[in-house]
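> tool_call: predict_assembly(chains=two)
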Amino acid sequence: MADPILKIQNLDAYYGDFQALFGVNCEVNKGEIIAIIGANGAGKTTLMRAITGLLKSDPDMVQWHGSPVGALRADQVARLGIAMVPEGRQLFPSLSVEENLKIGGQVGRSGAWSVETVFELFPILKERRNVPSTSLSGGQQQMVAIGRALMSNPDLLLFDEISLGLAPIIIKTIYDALPNIVGDGMTGIIVEQDIAKALSVSDRVYCLQEGRVSLEGSVKSISREDISHAYFGV
Amino acid sequence: MDWVNAVLQGVLLGGLYALFAAGLSLIFGVMRLVNIAHGDFIVLAAFLGLVVTTTLGMHPLAALAIVVPFMALLGYVLQRCILNQTLGNDILPPLLVTFGLSVIIQNGLLEIFTANPQKLSAGALETASIPLGGGLNAGVLPILTFAAAVAIIAFLQWIFYRTSLGRAFRAVSDNQDIAQLMGLNKSHIFGLAMALSMAVIAIAGIFLAVRTSFDPSVGPARLIFGFEAVIIGGLGNLWGTLIGGIILGVSQNIGAQINPGWQLLAGHIAFLIVLAVRPRGLFPRVDG
């Protein structure tokens, strides 16, 4: 087995005095898709913030290709090739659709993704390239958020609650597009509350419960009972 | 005809106020920083212009070539070393720190240059004027100031909406966390915004110094004019800032036309009326 591209080691995370993560361990191998599930407040988003550098941790707690990156700033982490589709989409309201995409590419990493290839993936965005990002529907905004993350040609792409607040039909469209997105040697981490959706596209799963990893394993080998036990702690 | 003249001169004066205001508007737009020392930096730039013109014997407008880059560099360093440390969820620390800078600059200038009024000499440019017919005359210097204001605002507008730097400014202004995820180092972006603001300050300072005499204590009044222009025009709208400067200049000149003692009062009253009727300014930026 090759070395993992991302290794989380004994990660503790704090918001002020409040500790949100307790000694979390996690490994992500190249080309696989990891699902991170857990109830509200289990620490999923905190884990994402720690990986992307929005939340500082000790250098060794987050390792990228074996080198410590836990203490780097978010912009430095982004340049390494880690991108995120943030929870709630969080597009830049002052920027048009196309500008939102372009700013994702400003990291300056070359690769397959460009404004044109994103438009091929989501043709509707091409029609609406010059409108303010706020005038799009929720699903279209999510497409922009995904496209914006892809524009940096990342090696690792984090999806934080991409189905939140979207109609089921839109969620299906976006999940149908996922294999195309993550196919080209890209590695993905999917954070979801919709467990079935998350498991349907991923290879391995980590379940968080109150800031600790309560279950990990390959999607094929774990049962529904294991998950509900790890999820609810009953 | 006196009234027409008052309005015309007021419009041109508004150009100077727009120059005072543009830098203020820019940094507030990008990082929600209110720079209390803005006026004092204008005066600092004026004194720098004085040093450059007297030691090198340059024309004040040529001195811009030295003063503008110097002030821009100062702005970048200031932002990276001091002001970035004050930015956060609390709006008070940057106010206090820039207020402190204001005191330091005023007293530093007083120590070095004394309280004597100074002026930059621009030779014939100061008195040259263009007859517009009907007894109206427009000074070349005020016209030049106004043209500079329009050009600078157009340039800033172009940077904001046509370049990748402007995209970064707007993105960081919208959402600092997510902008960082896009590989933008906000400390650096803020530094560049302050550098740009200080470059505009340098131009404003030189035009001020050629137009009137100045001493180390006149900064805060320039800050007030800049503030009023920004608020009248609407926060975050650069063309609105130009209109705000013009409204301020015209009201001051009309006030002075009625009674010379009413010049400043008339400007403040115009500001007050706008604030009462349109608290967000005449042309607020339309977004969330």
